[in-house]
Structures are given as C-alpha cells and as structure tokens.
Amino acid sequence: MAVKIVDACVSCWGCLDVCPSQAIYEGDQQMMVRADKCTECVGDYADPQCASVCPVEMAILDSFGIAFNPPGSLTGIYPEKLAMVMEQD
C-alpha cells in the first residue's frame, strides 16, 4: 500500500513536509514516494496528507491507480463541462 506521485506533479514541495512517514522525496522530474515507507496515512489520518495539500489534480494516485484529486475536484471544471464549452466554440 503506497500512494504514487505521477508526472502531473509540479514539485511544489507541499507534500514533503506533511508526510508523517517521511516517504516523499525529490526526484529528478517530480516528487517521488518510497513505497516501503508510505502507509497512505491509514490509521493516522482520514486521507493521505500528501493528497490533502496537493494543488494539482491527477498528481497523486492511490494503490489502485485512482486519483485522490480527480479532474474537476479542485478547479470545479469537470471534464464533461469543459467538453461542452469547447463544443460550443
């Protein structure tokens, strides 16, 4: 069980200081997670702390590959609504 930070990460460093397991580190292109240290904050917090402070949608995935912050969850611009607007132009 470990979160995964993917290439949508902008390396804002927000997740680094809030990780209670100190599982996050700076990689070459983005922040990375030491899978052997990450617990997804189970037992300590209701939600993974890294995902709770991440300002980017689709940047942090759970162990099943599902984004904690899916498209539209932070911006309020859901993909379906964006597609409708794009079709009108």
Can you walk me through this structure?
This protein has 89 residues and is of the alpha+beta class. Helix content is 22%, strand content 11%. It has a two-stranded antiparallel sheet. A two-stranded antiparallel sheet has the order 2-3. It is elongated and about 50 Å long.
Annotation keywords:
alpha+beta; 4 strands; 89 residues; two-stranded antiparallel sheet
Summary of the model, kept short:
By secondary structure, this protein is of the alpha+beta class. The protein has helices at 14-18, 49-53, 79-88, and strands at residues 4-5, 24-26, 31-33, 60-61.
Topology of this protein?
Blueprint: E1 4-5, H1 14-18, E2 24-26, E3 31-33, H2 49-53, E4 60-61, H3 79-88
Antiparallel strand pairs: 1-4, 2-3
N-end to C-end Cα span: 44 Å
Main pleated-sheet profile: 2 strands, antiparallel
Number of strands: 4
CA radius of gyration is: 14 Å
Order of helices and strands: EHEEHEH
Q: Enumerate how many helices there are, as a single number.
A: 3
Strand content: 5-15%
Report strand order across the widest sheet. 1-4
